[in-house]
Amino acid sequence: MQTVVFNVEGMNCGGCVKNVTRILQGVPGVESAEVSLETASATVRFDPAITQPAALAAAVEDGGFDASL
Fold it and tell me: Which of 8, 26, 46, 61 has minimal CB crowding within 10 Å?
């Protein structure tokens, strides 16, 4: 397993945090996702044989938020 932390812009409430968390947890290979409104970031633990950080960021962006590694 690997862990990546990336910035998530566009979140402004707890509902946004829940949405981003749900998006990340729905990506195959993700073991856990912790999203913080205070730091505007997401910490994701994932299996690199199944997914990659760029795919995680793309999933967040498809959900309407901006993500950068």
Answer: 26
**Three-state DSSP class for residue 2:** strand
Q: What six digits make up the tokens of 16?
A: 């946004």
Which residue is it, tokens 């901006």?
66
Q: Classify burial at 42, counting beta carbons within 10 Å of its beta carbon; exposed 0-12, middle 13-18, buried 19 or more.
A: buried
Task: Tell me the pTM.
Answer: 0.93
Long-range contacts of 11-15 (CB under 8 A, 24+ apart): 11/35, 11/37, 11/40, 11/65, 12/37, 13/37
